[in-house]
Amino acid sequence: MEKKKTLYIRTFGCQMNVHDSEKMLGLLHEEGYTATDNPLKADIIIFNTCSIRQKAEQKFYSDLGRIRSFKKKKPLLKIAVAGCIAQQEGLNILRKAAHVDLVFGPQNIHLLKSFIKNGTPRVATGENPDIALYDLPVKREKGVRAWVTIMYGCNNFCSYCVVPYTRGKERSRPSRNIMKEIRDLALQGYKEITVLGQNVNSYKSDLDFPGLLREINRIEGIERVRFVTSHPKDLTDSLIAAISDLSKVCEHIHLPLQSGSDKVLKLMNRGYSFEEYLKKVKNLRKRVPGIAITSDIIAGFPNEEAEDHEDTVRALRAIEYDGIFAFKFSPRPGTKAAQMGDDVTDEVKTDRLLEILEIQDGITGRKNKNLVGSVQEVLTEGRSEGRADQYTGRTRTNKIVTFDRVDIPPGVLILVEIVGGRRHSLDGNPILS
Fold first, then answer.
1. Are the CB atoms for 98 and 92 separated by under 8 Å?
2. Backbone angles phi and psi of 25, in degrees to 5
């Protein structure tokens, strides 16, 4: 009897990386591999890395060093490094870590099979102009929500970001390929689709992004459509109209501001002023009442002074996001921001970040408590990770709702009365007819 081949993937970073890992699983599943959550039992270990912040990079190198002993105990074990650090470092990873067998960037996932079969190439970090034409197999966990990539790369070159260097130029998939993938997902029972891109609203193939959303909205079986991530400068009136008009497109948008200071936004090469951003937020809320808006904020960017930080604090209070992801600035090699000099001390960065988070926690908590007494449409997702006697689901505005276990399977839309609002979730009672 042939020994079962196993694969372990450790994923760092964003949704794009998580979905890339699903593609790696899909490719190797076709070669007879099954996933394991125990690296000691694996025949192949893949680190799918992220270099957006220094902390994630340090964590990866720590984990990579820790498994050096695995190779001594199991000489046939294959170790691969994928993702953005692989793209940046390439051959240097093999020089630093002799126990690594393969290094490949986000644009070269399709070569994974060739390595498994032939042991070549050992390093694959070249530009891939045909990436949008590959429809790789995807191995997803069974559930109600699925990610679908609609485009690759980024042309924005924000001064702090490595993505244009690691993921290449913007390339959009043909709409027919996207539609086929989503129709297949509907047949498999998935109810919610999130379309992915580094900047989804700059998607442009045979359709523009609002046109693509209109086509997806027609697919039977799909109940909800979401998208990430949007760049504010490309949030057009036609996209806002699509969010407003299309019944399946959810009332939630992730719209990274990064800073409330025009000076800092210019240093970041974001392509908009705070007033221009605020105008779009007001237009969104006018056209889509009740829309939830989330954002990203960077604390302590180079040359950020106290008054710039105060501009960001004022922006948080003026906009009142439903939630944010906030981080201390981390210089990334090869970016323009890394050449500006990291002149804000770590202590100051920490203080500014804590103030940002404290303000936003108050806003988020208040918004969630204001929903008490309302009735929300919730897509059930299954058992709560924290408590076996409770289930969870999400509202159209992407808020997590926890409720007592009921005899309803995952993937069903139900009405839930909100009875409690916490900082990061809601408590509810299902309204059962």
1. no
2. -60, -40
How many alpha carbons lie under 13 Å from residue 188 in its C-beta half-sphere?
18
* pLDDT score of 2: 59
DSSP string, 153-213: --S---TT--HHHHH-S-EEPPHHHHHHHHHHHHHTT--EEEEE-TTGGG-BSSSBHHHHH
pLDDT digits (tens, 9 = 90+) for 100-153: 999 999 999 999 999 998 888 899 999 999 999 989 999 998 889 999 999 999
pLDDT tens readout for residues 92-105: 999 999 999 999 99
Residue that is written with structure tokens 């593609």 in the block: 23
Amino acid at 247: S
- Alpha-carbon distance of 381 to 392, in angstroms, equals 6
Residue 7 has pLDDT above 90, yes or no: yes
324's tokens: 């944010």
Q: Is residue 111 within 8 Å of 121, Cβ to Cβ?
A: yes
Q: Single out the residue of 355, 350, 292, 279 nearest to residue 321, CA to CA.
A: 292
Burial class (CB in 10 A: 0-12, 13-18, 19+), 3: exposed
- Give the integer Cα–Cα distance in Å for 376 and 224: 14
| CB atoms near residue 291 (< 10 Å) | 20
SS3 (DSSP) at 332: coil
Q: Is the dihedral of CA 244, 249, 251, 255 positive or negative?
A: negative
Task: Please enumerate in sequence order all residues whose Cβ is within 8 A of that of 85, keeping only pairs 6 or more positions apart, or say none.
Answer: 49, 50, 51, 57, 60, 93
